[in-house]
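Q: Structure tokens for this one, please.
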Amino acid sequence: MSISHSLTPAAELASRNGVRYPNESAAYRQARDALLAEEIELRRHIERVAEQRRALPPGGEVAKDYRFDSEDGPVSFADLFSGKQTLVVYNYMFGPERERPCPMCTSLLSAWDGEARDVEQRVALAVVARSSIERLVAFKKERGWQALKLYSDTSGAFSRDYHAWPPEGGDDAAFNVFTRRDGTIRHFWGGEMGFVTADPGQDPRGAPDLMPIWTILDCTPEGRGSDWYPKLNY
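A: Here is the predicted structure, written as tokens:
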């Protein structure tokens, strides 16, 4: 559904809000209403971007026969769809050369583990890494994940093609969406906001941000900060 171009101005909606907090000053309310108008505009922009994403033309066909190891044995790429028409794949920075997985990826996936069963009511969700399935399952148990489906891309073919294993080595996180329509699997969309797209003084990140922790911290006076990142242990 297209967003109407005759929406009520955000400032007008903000003025109708009527929310007040104990002992707030007039200056606070004026600034808060101005911020509320910007928040409304942000919500609208997020929806415009999502609408534009949904309207993308068909992406490239997945022609290779990618193979993975799952907790239940070898599977094909088509198997990752688990009967759904859409597949979301997150490439986890946990290659065989790493002693421990990426803390940022782990923080994200810990949050997603709680949402995975809800997500999979609509689409399939797969987490792919290049470490062996035994190593992935061991860390899944250590972390207490219950719902995430982990897959080992031991050949690295999928990770290489979909920008999670750079030619210079190491790991990159990647987030890709695939569709299966009339028996044909295609790439639909992938995150492309890397270092070359980052603004000065900011880490590269997608928009909207996939990590709930940053959304929470963005609502606080401390914000994200510039010298703190999640860790595997505290």
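A few notes: The chain has a mean pLDDT of 94. Helices lie at 10-15, 26-54, 103-119, 133-143, 157-161, 212-217.
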